[in-house]
Every structure is written in structure tokens, then in C-alpha cells.
Design a protein that fits this description.
This protein is an alpha+beta fold and 438 residues long. The protein has helices spanning 2-33, 116-126, 131-150, 155-160, 162-180, 198-346, 349-357, 359-371, 388-411, 415-424, and strands at residues 34-37, 41-51, 57-63, 66-69, 76-81, 85-95, 101-112, 182-193. Among the domains are: 2-78, no CATH class; 82-196, Band 7 domain (Tetrahydropterin Synthase, Chain A, 2-Layer Sandwich), CATH 3.30.479.30; 347-376 and 387-438, no CATH class. The strands form 3 sheets. The protein has a 3-stranded antiparallel β-sheet with strand order 3-2-5, with helices on one face. Strand 6 (85-95) and strand 7 form a beta hairpin.
């Protein structure tokens, strides 16, 4: 066990070297027999036989893109370029269907086809050959097909519809190129001419025809323009008349609308004025109310308040003035009370005493009443008995007596009786007597 452990490092190194060498050898073998196919190439691996899709046996296989391994010794690998090949196609004296020789120049772009059904043809024909060989074969094929297509067309068809010509040529040459394993990408006709100036003559004729057609078209256009101008003028006149009629109608409508609007405006204005008057009246009423209120306030401040103040002042003044009167009244009441007491004590003679004290005042009243009797000029007519003047003179004592009777009937005071009683009383009072006055 110890010996095995001591020999392991040497064996490990040897084993590593052997494995590394084997790996390097394997990489060399793989890199030698592994082939990468680029997108613009195809690989042709020859050596083994295999059966194709149509059942035929071939001794190669084609790889387009990706990678492939070849078997050593029995298989070989070759590459074919699939890039585009431009071809300048130019032919002279190619007769058309009517026998007119033409010179045609075209450009075509071809390449090896990637179609599995067609690429076998390219492998069998061009494997090991360069692009120049492929270009030459394709050019000759295109020129032959171009001559064949020109033989089926007229110069007019070739010159007038080159797109159709190119399509016919492409359809014709595609079949032949497929047999070669090629594919036509682009075919364009660049130039078509002839030595007999046939196309130029056709062009002049066509130009003349075009000019003629243009002149005819221009003449027709002028005629049509004249007709259109006349028709347009007529339509313009009709349109003007219609426009005038429409304008007149619109003017009438405008006048009618203006009248309606004016009437409505006047109505609105009148209503506005009425409203303004009503508003003014209401405002004046409100103003009068405000004035009345102001007048009431002014009256209140100028009259009522001063009147109240004066009334209160008068009341106060009356109260002040009534105070002495009230006092006098109380004094008078007290004096009347005393007089009443004196009358009560005096007995029946109290009234006579009072009247005697007031006889002077009563007499003055009677005299004043008599004095108020005023007589103007008096004319006496005597009846012959001489009594007119005595009667007139006796009227004054009768008036006095009438006044005394009226005084007695109203006051109950009989002045005549009082005077009679006064006459019978002593002419003077005793020294110890007192005059009783209320």
C-alpha cells in the first residue's frame, strides 16, 4: 500500500500527459476532417454513394450552410462560390419576327442555385471551375435565349413594352439556366436600337401621330373650351340672374326682418319706457314714502317733540303756577269754612249780613247794566195827550226795575227788599258793634 502511494504522482503526470496528447491529437483530427460552410458557399463532399430523393444514385452530397464531417481517405471536400455573377449581355443583328435586325443590350445577375433539385446540375457542370467559366456559359445561354425571344416579337413590342420583353426573356432563360444549376436574379433591358433606323422612323411616325393627335386634341380642346366657355357664360348669366333674384329676395327678407326687428325694438322700447315710467312712479312713490317718513321725522323733531317739550314745560309751569292757586284755594277754603262757621253761628241773619256787605257790588252791576243801554237820537211823537215825554222819561226807572227783577229771578237776591230793610235799620251801628264780612 505504501509503494502504490509513492508511485501515484509519477503515474498521474504520465496519465495527464497521455490524456493531453490524446486530446490534442483528437482536436487535430477533428479540425482536419471538420468543415464549416459559410452562407455564400456550398460544400460538395465526394466519395460515398447515396440515393437522392428521385431515387437515383450519386457519389456525392451537397451541404449548404452549417458544418459537415468527411470520412478520412474515402471522402474529399470541395467548395463552390454562390455569390452573384453580373453578366453584360449585348447582341447585334438579332432579327425580330418581321425581319428587322436589332441591337439589344441588357444586364443580368446570376448565381449558383441553392435549390436542392437544381444544385446537383451546377455541381456536375461547374465543380472545380471558376466564376469566369460560369459567367461565360451563362452569358452565351442568355444571348441565345435573347435571340430566340426577339425572333417572336416585333420591334414595336420590344421597344414599347420592355418590361414585358424582360419578363418573356426571364421565363425563357430560367428553364435553360435551371439545367445548368444556375438561378437568374435580375434581368434588365438597357438599350434597343437598329441599323435601319426603323425604331427612329416608328418614333417619328409616332411623334407625328402624337403631334397630330395633340393638334386634334388641342383643336377639340379649343372647341370644347369654346363650348364650355359659352356654356359657362350662359350658366354665369343664369347664375347672375338667379343671384340677382336671390339677392332681391334676400333684400326683401332683410327689409322684412329689419321691419320686424324695428317693430319689436319699438315694442321693447315702449315696454321699456312704460317699465321705466312704472319704475319711476314706484320710485317716486317710494321717494314720497321716504319724504313722508322724513317729513314725519322732521315734524316729530320740529313740532311734536318741541310741543311735547312745551307741553311738559307748560305742565310743569302750570304745576308751578297752580301751587300758589292751590294754596290760595286752600286758604279760601279755610276762610269759607270760617265764614260758614260764622254763618252757622249768626243764624238767619247771616245771609242778610252777607248781602248787605255786597250791596255795593250788586248795585254796581245794576248800574253797569243800565249804562250799557245806549240810545241814539230819539224822535217823540205826541198823541196829543202830552204823555210821550213822561213815558220816555219813566223808561229809565222801568229799565232799572227790570234789571232788579232779572237779578232776583236769576240769583234770588231781592235788592229792593234789602234796601227797604236797610232803611228801617238804624242809620249807624253802636260803638261796640262790628261789621261782619265774609
Amino acid at each position: 500500500m505504501t509503494e502504490l502511494t509513492t508511485m501515484n504522482p509519477v503515474a498521474a503526470v504520465v496519465t495527464g500527459l497521455v490524456i493531453g496528447a490524446a486530446f490534442l491529437v483528437l482536436l487535430g483530427i477533428i479540425s482536419h476532417f471538420l468543415y464549416i460552410c459559410r452562407p455564400n458557399q456550398l460544400l460538395v463532399i465526394s466519395g460515398r454513394r447515396r440515393r437522392t430523393e428521385d431515387g437515383s444514385l450519386v457519389g456525392y452530397r451537397v451541404v449548404t450552410g452549417g458544418w459537415a464531417m468527411r470520412l478520412p481517405i474515402i471522402e474529399t471536400v470541395e467548395r463552390m462560390d454562390m455569390r452573384s455573377i453580373p453578366i453584360d449581355v449585348s447582341i447585334n443583328g438579332a432579327y425580330t419576327r418581321v425581319g428587322i435586325p436589332l441591337r439589344v443590350r441588357a444586364i443580368a445577375i446570376t448565381k449558383i442555385s441553392s435549390n436542392p433539385k437544381v444544385v446537383m446540375n451546377a455541381v456536375e457542370r461547374f465543380l472545380g471551375r471558376g466564376p469566369g467559366d460560369i459567367q461565360q456559359v451563362a452569358k452565351e445561354t442568355l444571348e441565345g435565349n435573347l435571340r430566340g425571344v426577339l425572333a417572336t416579337l416585333t420591334p414595336e413590342e420590344v421597344n414599347e413594352d420592355r418590361l414585358k420583353f424582360a419578363e418573356s426573356l426571364s421565363q425563357e432563360v430560367e428553364h435553360d439556366l435551371a439545367k445548368l444549376g444556375l438561378h437568374l436574379d435580375v434581368l434588365k433591358i438597357q438599350h434597343v436600337t437598329d441599323d435601319a433606323n426603323y425604331l427612329a422612323s416608328i418614333g417619328r411616325g409616332q411623334i407625328a401621330q402624337v403631334v397630330k393627335d395633340a393638334e386634334i386634341a388641342e383643336s377639340n380642346a379649343r372647341n370644347e373650351a369654346a363650348k364650355e366657355a359659352a356654356a359657362a357664360e350662359m350658366r354665369a348669366k343664369v347664375a347672375d340672374a338667379e343671384a340677382e333674384r336671390t339677392i332681391a329676395q334676400r333684400r326683401n327678407d332683410v327689409r322684412r326682418i329689419a321691419a320686424e326687428l324695428e317693430a319689436e325694438a319699438k315694442s321693447i322700447e315702449e315696454r321699456a319706457e312704460a317699465g321705466a315710467l312704472a319704475a319711476h312712479a314706484l320710485a317716486m312713490q317710494d321717494l314720497e314714502g321716504v319724504r313722508r317718513e322724513l317729513e314725519a321725522l322732521r315734524l316729530q323733531s320740529d313740532v311734536v317733540v318741541p310741543a311735547d317739550i312745551q307741553r311738559e314745560a307748560a305742565a310743569l309751569a302750570a304745576a308751578g303756577a297752580a301751587a300758589p292757586t292751590a294754596e290760595n284755594g286752600r286758604a279760601t277754603a279755610e276762610s269759607l269754612g270760617l265764614v260758614a262757621d260764622a254763618w252757622t253761628k249768626a243764624g238767619p241773619s247771616a245771609q242778610d249780613m252777607f248781602l248787605i256787605n255786597k250791596i255795593e257790588d250788586i248795585t254796581k252791576i245794576v248800574v253797569d247794566a243800565v249804562q250799557r243801554i245806549k240810545l241814539g237820537p230819539v224822535h217823540l211823537i205826541d198823541g196829543g195827550d202830552g204823555q210821550s215825554l213822561p213815558r220816555f222819561a219813566a223808561a229809565y226807572p222801568a229799565a232799572v226795575a227790570e234789571v232788579l227783577r232779572t237779578l232776583f229771578s236769576t240769583t234770588g237776591v231781592d235788592i229792593t227788599a234789602l234796601l227797604a230793610r236797610q232803611a228801617v235799620q238804624p242809620a249807624a251801628a253802636s260803638p261796640g258793634s262790628k261789621e261782619v264780612r265774609p
